[in-house]
Amino acid sequence: MIIDSHCHLEYDPLAKNLDDVVDRALKNGVKYLLTISTTDKGSDKIFEIIKKYPSIYGSYGIHPHESESHKNIDCSKILKKVQLSKKIIGIGETGLDFYYNHSKKKDQKDLFIEHIKAAQESSLPLIVHTRSAEKDTYEILESELKKKTFKILIHCFTGSKEFAKKLLDIGCYISASGIVTFKNSSDLANTFKTIPNNRILVETDSPYLSPDPLRGKTNEPSHIIHTVKFLSKLKNLDIKELSKITSQNFFNLFGELN
């Protein structure tokens, strides 16, 4: 069993052929999928998807790119959305992205903290996006953890080995996407080699970031098998063993699924 811990099934072209996408995932051993919210409006589609498909669960949150256009979203509004369905099992994706700066840094930080408060209140895991913002991301997480603990998943990790160690030290789980399979990602692969097996999850971030040998094509959950194969070789583990480990890590973080 494999679990795709981060995909965007409400995005086209996946949304247009979702029955086929889910069927291909199941045929490749992907038993569960977690489809991730990035905007308030987009979450409406996520609620429809998780209601229709037993194998799909969802999150609610606002991507850092969208922070400036979602200044009305606060902890209480996040909690109200989360309470609409028991199949909403995570908060995010949220975080900081200073690579593109589609939203002002202050707006990103303010909304990030509102998501953290919601994670603290609900006891649901926080799904974190961080790019070109290692220092600020870590400082906010560390500071807020001192106030009240919460569970953290760093999605699509592409950071340094030093950043990974700091995140592990504060209890984070770290997710590998197809990027780890890229030929120019040897440093990232070496970093994942050092991350303890009991802290690693796998994801597609589909429809983006298709792994080798499908790089450049539209990604989908069934493609996660290539990332699992890569990591199993990297970790010197059988594919079934790595799948079992990453699935158990998912359950440890998000709870058992029905």
Please give a handful of descriptors for the protein shown.
eight-stranded parallel sheet, alpha/beta, 9 helices, 42% helix, 258 residues, globular
Largest sheet: 8 strands, parallel
Task: Report the β-strand fraction as a percent range.
Answer: 15-25%
Query: Which spans have pLDDT < 50 for at least 5 consecutive residues?
Result: none
Taking the alpha carbons of the first and last residues, their distance comes to 14 Å
SS element count, helices: 9
Net shape: globular
Percent helix, as a range, is 40-55%
Question: Largest beta sheet: what is the strand line-up?
Answer: 1-2-3-4-5-6-7-8
Q: What is the total tally of β strands?
A: 8
Query: What is the H/E string?
Result: EHEHEHEHEHEHEHEHH
Derived from helix and strand composition plus strand pairing, the structural class reads alpha/beta
Mean model confidence by pLDDT: 97
Q: What Rg, in angstroms, do the CA atoms define?
A: 17 Å
Describe the protein.
This protein has 258 residues and is an alpha/beta fold. It has 9 helices and 8 strands. An 8-stranded parallel sheet has the order 1-2-3-4-5-6-7-8.
